Amino acid sequence: MNTLSYGLLAFLAREPGSGYDVMLKIQPFWQAKHSQIYPLLAQMEENELLTSYWIKQSEKPDKKIYSITDSGIRKLKEWMYMPLPDPITRDELSMKTFCMWMTDRDNAIEIVETRKAYFTRRLESFNSMLQKIPEEKRTFGNREFYDYILVQKGIFNATAGQDWCNWVLGMLKEQQATESQVQPAQ
Amino acid sequence: MNTLSYGLLAFLAREPGSGYDVMLKIQPFWQAKHSQIYPLLAQMEENELLTSYWIKQSEKPDKKIYSITDSGIRKLKEWMYMPLPDPITRDELSMKTFCMWMTDRDNAIEIVETRKAYFTRRLESFNSMLQKIPEEKRTFGNREFYDYILVQKGIFNATAGQDWCNWVLGMLKEQQATESQVQPAQ
DNA sequence: CAATGCATGTAATGCGTTACATGATTCC
DNA sequence: GGAATCATGTAACGCATTACATGCATTG
Question: How distant is C1' of C9 from CA of A63, in Å?
Answer without folding.
Answer: 12
